[in-house]
Design brief:
The chain is an alpha/beta fold. The chain has helices spanning 12-21, 40-49, 59-67, 94-97, 99-104, 113-128, 149-156, 180-187, 221-231, 281-296, and strands at 2-7, 27-30, 52-55, 75-78, 90-91, 107-109, 138-144, 169-170, 194-200, 206-213, 237-239, 260-266, 270-277. The strands form 2 sheets. It has a 7-stranded mixed β-sheet with strand order 8-9-7-10-13-12-11. Strand 1, helix 1 and strand 2 (27-30) form a beta-alpha-beta unit.
């Protein structure tokens, strides 16, 4: 029996993890009553009793939880931003980090949702030399509102909400989005991309687009597709070379799934790299469960919707 502790089980990701793992054989959940859920002593006791601890907390609280750990056998999967670029932590994107590294890790930083889509597109290309590490890139990311947590979900689902919520809204206007450090580091870029995240009035789904001019690429769109086909031949990320049935690309096409599609569109002069996935799936709880499965030595897709 594997002891599981979800620190921050009342948040969006924590609730989704608890819901998805409930009833799964071989897992024993360590929980605190509501009165002691945030109590430091209780959290310390539970995290040290856990084989695997999920941290679904704000950054400062996640750092505090890690400081509680005295048990060398406790493995941590942190869904916060706190440790994604930290030394000694393994970045939890198995398709690029490597399954063996995840399996051997005790400290795993679960990727950010927007970051997952960008990294899936760009990291293979910088590694293959198709995009230079000094490239100045731009990325657009369209996301469902559930990625904003309980407060944003309540705002969007409020019947008396502001009419401005009816249309897509651009945010992170100061170019200080919290996912930028991992996007830059994991892709090996010298500068962070110009990043334009957009939240819209649909609950789940994400579509990340990176536009490229021919001059930014050491190769062709066909070369990119070949790299994607090779590196994503197995696993939860796959190459797809077709749009939706109507010729368009819906940001909600992968809603409810834990897999990801990467695609290449455009022409010889102007190219669009696109990843589509669920912001709560491969972008959050789905990725955390995938990492847990690898730690446990079971099929990585166990309990996931592919």
């Amino acid at each position: 029996m594997v002891n599981i502790f979800i620190d921050g089980s009342a948040g969006t990701t924590g609730l989704k993890l608890a819901e998805r793992l409930a009833g799964r054989e071989g897992l024993n959940f360590l929980t605190a009553d509501e009165e002691h859920r945030k109590d430091a002593a209780t959290r310390r006791e539970l995290i040290n009793a856990a084989d695997i601890a999920f941290l679904c907390l704000p950054d400062a609280s996640a750092v505090e939880s890690v400081s509680f750990i005295e048990n060398p056998n406790t493995a941590v999967i942190d869904t916060s931003t706190a440790h994604r670029t930290a030394e000694g932590w393994t970045y939890g994107f198995p398709e690029l980090t490597g399954h063996d590294k995840i399996a051997a890790a005790k400290r795993i930083a679960n990727p950010g949702c927007h970051a997952s889509g960008f990294i899936a597109l760009i990291a293979p290309l910088t590694r293959a030399g198709l995009i230079a590490k000094d490239a100045a890139l731009t990325a657009f990311s369209l996301t469902g509102y559930t990625g904003g947590g309980k407060k944003m979900i309540a705002q969007y689902e409020d019947p008396s909400r502001d009419p401005l919520y009816d249309a897509p809204r651009l945010y992170a206007l100061t170019q200080q989005h919290k996912h930028l450090p991992e996007m830059q580091k994991v892709c090996g870029l010298e500068t962070a991309p110009l990043f334009c995240p957009i939240v819209a009035d649909f609950p789940r789904g994400m579509e990340v687009t990176v536009p490229l001019h021919k001059s930014q690429l050491k190769g062709t769109a066909k070369d990119i597709a070949e790299v994607y086909r090779e590196i994503y031949a197995e696993g939860l990320v796959r190459y797809a070379d077709a749009a939706d049935a109507d010729g368009l690309l819906s940001a909600g096409a992968m809603a409810g799934k834990d897999s990801m599609q990467v695609s290449v569109f455009g022409n010889d002069e102007r190219i669009l790299l696109v990843s589509r996935f669920d912001n709560l799936g491969k972008g959050a709880s789905g990725a955390a469960i995938q990492n847990m499965n690898i730690l446990l030595g079971v099929d990585e897709a166990t309990g996931l919707n592919i």
